[in-house]
TrEMBL record:
CDD domains, per database record: ribokinase
Cofactor note: Requires a divalent cation, most likely magnesium in vivo, as an electrophilic catalyst to aid phosphoryl group transfer. It is the chelate of the metal and the nucleotide that is the actual substrate.
Protein name: Ribokinase
Lineage: Bacteria, Pseudomonadati, Pseudomonadota, Alphaproteobacteria, Rhodobacterales
Pathway in which this enzyme or protein is active: Carbohydrate metabolism; D-ribose degradation; D-ribose 5-phosphate from beta-D-ribopyranose: step 2/2
Organism: Sulfitobacter marinus
Designated gene of the protein: rbsK
Compartments, record wording: Cytoplasm
Amino acid sequence: MIWNLGSINADNFYYLRHLPKPGETIAAEDFNQGLGGKGANMSVAAARAGTRVMHIGAVGLDGKWAVERLLEYGVETQHIHMINVPTGHANICVAEDGENNIVLFGGANHEVDDRIIGAALSEASPGDFLLMQNETMGQEFAARTAKTLGLRVAYAAAPFEVDVVADVMGDVDLLVLNEGEAADLVQALGQPLDQLPIDDIIVTLGENGCKWVSNKGKSEQSFAAYPVKPVDTTGAGDTFTGYFVAALDRKLAMTDAITLAMQAAALMVTRQGTADVIPDLKEIQDHDFDTGPNA
């Protein structure tokens, strides 16, 4: 089972010809609103990947719809609290080439405290996963508590802050970060990835695939990306992480878990949206990844 300490957002999508330059005003070609937040995205991805996932988080009084949507997608919601603070949201600009930029408002996500986290994790079992991102509070407490209870800790280090990574690093078993975040972490800590006290590190490389640095196994392995034409890259990394941790929770081997996660992310970038359009396991199993969707 996965216990996901994560954000829940309303995602506001603005579809543009190109991303705005500093000082530029540009008209949106289209608009859409849906469920998002790195935490919610990963919870939905993990549930659609075939494992049990309990979300730990908070929404405002305006966020009942988001909890209902998560429940509809198979996520357990008993530890999502409703509080008198606006639900977090993200304003997402998506250009025609699929690139995006995002402005976040944390809202209720920043009201998740140690009491909420502790109450949830007290129900966890040894061998479960704790999954975290950096859009809520309490990661250090959560990681330390989870390790004490015998959980495996997976941390997706985004939005990236080196101090937060340094604070939790001693309790993290699995770190997922992108190429830029990995470079920033190495520079800030003055240590290469293969010398960090973390068993396994996954570095996502966008269209170049990803690499797995196994400090436990003292090895490094690269994985090529699947050829697709991107429509919207928003949520692809979250989809990868949710599928990846879910596959490990289902006892898949690391290489098989990475392959499945990359297939899920490849399908995700061909769609517009976030949590609402994350592919399910059957879609991935039925897809011909040898030729790619645009062959």
